[in-house]
């Protein structure tokens, strides 16, 4: 009989590894409360927020050695959780740099407080090992986002986009909860690692229909967050209608959170199931269709856009499609084949590249905007190459990276995605993945056009109305970091790729609990099932 | 020597970075810095040429042992930064270094603003080209291959003619679309090789040998063409390289890009970039999917012949000199593809030789067109004649380059195109017959151009007024020293190769022979694979799949 760790010890340990998130939440609460009574200049609030994100980063590194029992804790501190949370904190710093002057002085406390809560929510999703806790994390990202819509500039268009986002987001949360309920129904437990372990060790495999409803509804709920077709339709209006800082927040955080949750909830949990199981085959089909349609629709419609934010919305849909290829592959991967985590690894690498290039490109728009002149259309950036050579060089690097031109980070992301899809399967099913790659490749070629249009406008067209904006230094640092890292990770992709491989492998881990590893033994597994296997 | 190769390849990039980070640099300093970098690169390339070991098949100037050339760049998967030269890439490498001198001299006076940036882009382009010819790793090759698009895109976009924006975007997207499909083909090759041998390698020589020895019956059997995986991968690889060459239906980007590009851009585009297509055909399509190449050879020969005739006829109809030279490239590159897909030693060797020859002649022709345009601001042949009287030296250059291009015996075009025709005749007499018509047409349009531009009574464009005209034509600049310096080595080589091609063929031959032999072995069918061997392979793959249980 395995020894069950005392619940109180597990809870203590869990709270310990969640210290960075707790710190962020505590500071956010304090800021929002104090904001009503104390009047501080905007830059002080921004500095407090930046400082606490940096502090959370330090805490995260200090706590890297701690771990929680896999089959009983609600949060994990495995490599996946560490790497993803660390990168989320890093992008949080970039976002804060871009956001530092994007809100009125009077609302600064609430604005930066909300950003911190979003940050904490996103990190909780990365560490969550429990259906309910995962949902809490996702909602911690969504709810402050609604608030942010009202804290930035308020016009009738922003109100419209806020309303749209609010209702659809609530609806998608409902879908997600419904799907999660079915995932719970598969085995009657909410612990994700235990769920994955049990699915592997039940001789009959998961129930097809219960599992399928779960997978489809979770994909629907998360598909909204990552803006994958057919849950994308809010994105163009919302991106265009809201302030550019919100656009870049929406373009990155929900997408990252959505894919991380997909990995934790679906692919990592279902990965031990044989890939010829009908449930997996159906899940692959659903993801295949979502990937193919998302990238095709995103790229084709983006070709027609003149509004940059709308273009980036469609480009975001297209990139969600590329990332869905990785998820499709991740469903096909399973332990024991030597290709445990190819798809997940590619998704993580691509997310990193995507964050840098999208935040960099949108960051240029933010850096150039002034309260009386917002950079919206492609004509607004005409002649940028002459007036702001460094900024436009950064933009060009980010755009070439988005288009997937070597030697930039975006190229290696695509290379990893394509090669993972090629090696996903060896048997007769392999052609499905090969076709998906060909579709993706044709899409990247078409997609290059609209990125190139921006570059052509910046460099080869004279300015329509010359830009004289002086760029604030925090925004310049953020944009510069994104561009430089896009370039550096193109030349030295090794560290990112090994970090994403290590985290992908740790996410796929479902070790057999044994008596002498008491800390790892699941209390819910004890009863009938343990004897059915081995 | 291995370090020298890396240094030579990276040297232009260093010059480019210096120029790129000092946009305010004095024009003279920028020009001389660029020229010094290019001359140093050429000097080092010549050292490599001298040190090249004739008769060796394996790539030379490499680091590490065969099978793991170069040093590790990305640990897992094992992508290695490996450079090396064999008989095929050696000449293209040296050609790139040489044409760079011509390109810089052609833009010496004609580029008047943002001079450091222009040379920065040119030198960056040179590193891309040198890198792709010398890389021994498919990923490194692909990175250099795609990287060349960026500097050329900006060169055309910044310094091109009136339609430059459209030209740069068309060029970029067209080549990108093709090369992405090539990437899929390359990934497919690597993954197939991994799945059937268990050896994950990205090395070009490693893949070429590994794929030839791969024991997977659908791969090595001569099946009907639509069933062979080699044919499918051949077509994927073909997409990118056919656009680069360009073969007939994929050539539409070329006239636009050439006409709009600045002279230096055209010289490198036609002189070197188009060879990338031929080089890719040889390395990837013929080297790695020999059965696909064999199955589709008739189709490829047909496209080449159509390209030869179509390009020649289109050139005949042009009144703009640059367009004429651009279409002549379509025709001549058709010859190169013809030689490559004759799939026999003579034809392929001729094609490799002709890649170098075409680089020299077309580089010289574009430089001549640049000289005319620089002085008269027009390239319309109808507006000028009798330039011999104005500048006999220029006329000599133009006639010489044209005759070389028209394959006059004794000049370089002949020693390339003649073996191509012989080789093609051996594999497909019909194609050779039609192609020789193209040769006649080639002489016709080039001589027609000479007749219009060089001979006849002196007539200079100037009916309409433009900037320089207020001074009258007596003020038209004579050929400058720097232009002579840019052209002389090309003309010397045009003559030298025509008279004594054997040093060139001696170095090309061993590598080409090895390649062609591989095609012949593949055609002869798989080597005796005993049933037992395939059996054990089957078991081992199964074992991998089910090891969990």
Number of helices of chain B: 22
The quaternary state of the protein chains shown equals: heterodimer
Query: How many helices of chain A?
Result: 20
Radius of gyration of chain B: 24 Å
What structural category do the secondary elements of chain B indicate?
Answer: mainly alpha
- Strand coverage percent of chain B: under 5%
If you average the pLDDT of chain B, what whole number results? Answer: 85
Radius of gyration of chain A: 23 Å
How far the N terminus sits from the C terminus of chain A, by CA atoms, comes to: 16 Å
Largest sheet of chain A: none
Succession of helices and strands of chain A: HHHHHHHHHHHHHHHHHHHH
Structural domain tally of chain B: 1
Classify the secondary structure makeup of chain A into a structural class: mainly alpha
Helix share, percent of chain A: over 70%
Distance between the termini of chain B: 52 Å
């Amino acid at each position: 009989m395995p020894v069950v760790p005392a619940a109180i010890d597990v809870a203590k340990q869990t709270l310990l590894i969640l210290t960075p998130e707790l710190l962020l939440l505590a500071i956010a609460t304090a800021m929002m409360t104090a904001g009503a009574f104390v009047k501080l200049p905007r830059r002080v609030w921004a500095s407090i927020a930046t400082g606490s994100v940096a502090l959370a980063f330090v805490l995260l590194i200090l706590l890297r050695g701690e771990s929680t029992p896999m089959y009983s804790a609600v949060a994990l501190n495995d490599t996946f959780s560490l790497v993803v949370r660390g990168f989320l904190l890093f992008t949080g710093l970039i976002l804060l740099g871009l956001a530092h002057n994007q809100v009125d002085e009077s609302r600064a406390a609430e604005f930066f407080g909300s950003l911190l809560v979003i940050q904490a929510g996103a990190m909780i999703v990365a560490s969550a090992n429990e259906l309910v806790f995962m949902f809490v994390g996702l909602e911690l990202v969504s709810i402050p986002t609604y608030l942010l819509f009202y804290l930035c500039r308020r016009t009738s268009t922003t109100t419209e986009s806020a309303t749209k986002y609010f209702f659809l987001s609530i609806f998608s949360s409902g879908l997600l909860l419904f799907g999660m309920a079915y995932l719970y129904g598969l085995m009657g437990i909410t612990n994700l690692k235990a769920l994955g372990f049990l699915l592997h060790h039940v001789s009959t495999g998961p129930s097809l229909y219960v599992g399928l409803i779960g997978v489809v509804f979770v994909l629907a709920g998360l598909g909204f967050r990552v803006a994958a077709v057919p849950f994308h339709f809010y994105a163009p209006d919302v991106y265009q209608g809201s302030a550019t800082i919100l656009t870049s927040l929406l373009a990155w955080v929900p997408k990252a959170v959505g894919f991380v949750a997909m990995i934790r909830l679906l692919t990592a949990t279902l990965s031990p199931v044989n890939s010829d199981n009908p449930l997996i085959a159906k899940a692959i089909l659903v993801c295949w269709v979502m990937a193919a349609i998302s990238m095709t629709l995103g790229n084709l419609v983006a070709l027609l856009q003149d509004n940059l934010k709308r273009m980036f919305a469609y480009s975001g849909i297209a990139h969600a499609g590329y990332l869905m290829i990785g998820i499709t592959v991740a469903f096909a991967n399973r332990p024991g084949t030597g290709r445990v985590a190819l798809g997940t690894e590619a998704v993580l690498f691509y997310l990193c590249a995507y964050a840098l290039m999208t935040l960099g490109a949108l960051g240029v728009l933010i850096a150039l905007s002034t309260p009386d002149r917002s950079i919206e259309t492609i004509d607004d950036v005409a002649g940028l190459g002459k007036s702001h050579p460094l900024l436009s060089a950064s933009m060009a690097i980010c755009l070439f990276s988005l288009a997937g031109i070597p030697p930039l980070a975006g190229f290696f992301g695509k290379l990893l995605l394509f090669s993972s899809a090629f090696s996903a399967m060896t048997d007769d099913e392999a052609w499905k993945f090969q076709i998906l790659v060909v579709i993706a490749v044709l899409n990247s070629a078409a997609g290059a056009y609209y990125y190139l249009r921006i570059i052509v406008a910046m460099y080869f067209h004279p300015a329509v109305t010359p830009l004289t904006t002086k760029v604030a230094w925090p925004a310049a640092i953020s944009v510069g970091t994104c561009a430089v890292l896009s370039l550096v990770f193109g030349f030295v992709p090794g560290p990112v790729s090994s970090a994403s491989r290590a985290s992908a492998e740790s996410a796929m881990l479902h070790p057999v609990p044994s008596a002498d590893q008491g800390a790892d033994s699941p209390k819910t597994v004890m009863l009938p099932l343990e004897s059915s296997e081995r | 020597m291995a370090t020298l190769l890396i240094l030579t390849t990276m040297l232009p990039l260093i010059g480019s970075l210096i120029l790129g980070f000092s946009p305010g640099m004095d024009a003279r300093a920028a020009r001389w810095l660029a020229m010094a970098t290019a001359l140093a690169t050429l000097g080092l390339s010549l050292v490599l040429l001298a040190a090249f070991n004739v008769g060796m098949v394996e790539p030379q100037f490499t680091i590490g042992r065969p099978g793991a050339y170069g040093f590790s760049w990305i640990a897992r998967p094992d992508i290695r930064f490996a450079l090396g030269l064999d008989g095929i890439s050696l000449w293209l490498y040296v050609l790139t270094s040489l044409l760079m001198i011509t390109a810089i001299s052609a833009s010496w006076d004609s580029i008047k603003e943002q001079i450091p940036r222009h040379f920065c882009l040119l030198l960056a382009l040179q590193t891309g080209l040198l890198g792709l010819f010398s890389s021994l790793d498919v990923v490194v090759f692909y990175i250099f291959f795609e990287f060349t698009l960026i500097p050329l895109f900006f060169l055309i976009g910044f310094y091109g003619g009136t339609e430059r924006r459209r030209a740069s975007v068309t060029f970029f997207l067209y080549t990108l679309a093709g090369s992405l499909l090539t990437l899929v083909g390359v990934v497919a090759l690597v993954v197939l090789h991994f799945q059937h041998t268990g050896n994950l390698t990205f090395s070009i020589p490693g893949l070429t040998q590994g794929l030839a020895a791969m024991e997977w019956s659908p791969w090595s059997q001569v099946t009907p063409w639509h069933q062979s995986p080699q044919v499918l991968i051949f077509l994927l690889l073909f997409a990118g390289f056919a656009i680069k060459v360009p073969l007939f239906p994929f050539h539409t980007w070329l006239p636009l890009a050439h006409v709009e590009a600045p002279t230096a851009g055209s010289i490198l585009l036609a002189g070197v970039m188009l060879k990338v297509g031929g080089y890719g055909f040889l390395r990837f399509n013929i080297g790695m999917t020999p059965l696909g190449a064999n199955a589709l050879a008739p189709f490829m020969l047909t496209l080449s012949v159509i390209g030869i005739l179509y390009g020649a006829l289109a050139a005949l109809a042009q009144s703009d000199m640059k367009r004429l030279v651009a279409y002549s490239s379509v025709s001549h590159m058709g010859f190169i593809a013809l030689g490559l897909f004759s799939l026999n030693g003579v034809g392929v060797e001729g094609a490799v030789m002709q890649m170098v020859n075409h680089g020299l002649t077309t580089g010289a022709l574009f430089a001549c067109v640049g000289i005319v345009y620089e002085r008269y601001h027009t390239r319309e042949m109808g507006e000028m004649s009798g330039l011999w009287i104005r500048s006999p030296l220029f006329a000599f250059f133009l006639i010489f380059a044209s005759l070389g291009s028209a394959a006059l015996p004794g000049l370089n075009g002949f020693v390339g195109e003649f073996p191509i025709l012989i080789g093609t005749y051996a594999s497909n007499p019909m194609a050779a017959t039609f192609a020789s018509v193209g040769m006649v047409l080639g002489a016709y349009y080039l001589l027609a151009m000479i007749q219009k531009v060089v001979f006849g009574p002196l007539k200079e464009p100037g009916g309409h007024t433009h900037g320089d005209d207020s001074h009258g034509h007596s003020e038209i600049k004579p050929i400058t020293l720097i232009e002579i310096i840019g052209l002389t080595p090309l003309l010397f080589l045009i003559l030298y190769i025509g008279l004594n091609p054997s040093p060139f063929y001696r170095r090309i031959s061993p590598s080409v022979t090895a390649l062609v032999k591989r095609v012949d072995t593949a055609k002869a069918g798989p080597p005796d694979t005993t049933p037992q061997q395939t059996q054990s392979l089957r078991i081992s793959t199964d074992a991998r799949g089910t090891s969990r249980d």
